[in-house]
UniProtKB/TrEMBL annotation:
Associated pathway: Carbohydrate biosynthesis; dTDP-L-rhamnose biosynthesis
Gene3D superfamilies found in the cross-reference section: Jelly Rolls (2.60.120.10)
EC number: 5.1.3.13
Reaction(s) the record says it catalyses: dTDP-4-dehydro-6-deoxy-alpha-D-glucose = dTDP-4-dehydro-beta-L-rhamnose
Species, as recorded: Xanthobacter oligotrophicus
Subunit structure: Homodimer.
Name by which UniProt lists this protein: dTDP-4-dehydrorhamnose 3,5-epimerase
Annotated gene: rfbC
Role played: Catalyzes the epimerization of the C3' and C5'positions of dTDP-6-deoxy-D-xylo-4-hexulose, forming dTDP-6-deoxy-L-lyxo-4-hexulose.
Transmembrane region(s): none
Keyword Isomerase: yes
């Protein structure tokens, strides 16, 4: 597995090795011992999968408060997504900054997003399937969000604002300036 720390060093892009021939390929996409040693000594407790059928679907930016704060290991198994993490840790030198990568089945890349970051993605192809491991279960009482197109954050989404397909919840999330402190650095 290849590891790349992004502009926010806690966010890690992981590219599993692939071994292929005329039939296709084989890849070990997750190894607990390797992940604990090289990325984060954490335990994943659940695997989630979502389908977004329409190009331009934006899900996020989401996070959960302690004690249900989630770390996520995200990959795309069909279609393509632009996956984003925003640092919302008060006092962090990268507070309010974002990183984003394209995840596809072809590149096999995965993105590790630890607790303390808001996470979201936009679909680049129809019928995009996102598979992600999480470190805590979902808790509606601890579920929070951040406005996906907050100009203060300035995410360079690969779509026009009018193209975004959003849930009613994601349309009304707070801007970073209005977000109560959620995590400390």
């Amino acid at each position: 597995m290849k590891l790349e720390r992004l502009a926010i060093p806690e966010i890690v892009k992981i590219t599993p090795a692939r071994f292929g021939d005329a039939r296709g390929y084989f890849s070990e996409v997750f190894k607990d011992e390797w992940f604990r040693k090289n990325v984060s000594d954490t335990t994943f407790i659940q695997d989630n999968q979502s389908l977004s059928s329409t190009v331009g679907t934006v899900r996020g930016l989401h996070f959960q408060l302690d004690p249900f704060a989630q770390g996520k290991l995200v990959r795309c198994t069909a279609g393509a997504i632009f996956d984003v993490a925003v640092d919302i840790r008060v006092g962090s030198p990268t507070f309010g900054r974002w990183v984003g990568v394209e995840l596809t089945p072809e590149n096999g890349d995965q993105l590790w997003i630890p607790p303390g970051f808001a996470h979201g993605f936009a679909t680049l192809l129809p019928d995009s399937v996102i598979f992600y491991k999480v470190t805590a279960p979902y808790s509606a009482a601890h579920d929070r969000g951040l406005l996906w197109n907050d100009s203060e954050i300035g995410i360079d989404w690969p779509l026009e604002t009018g193209q975004a397909v959003l849930s009613e919840k994601d349309k009304v999330q707070p801007r970073l300036a209005d977000l109560p402190p959620s995590f400390a650095y």
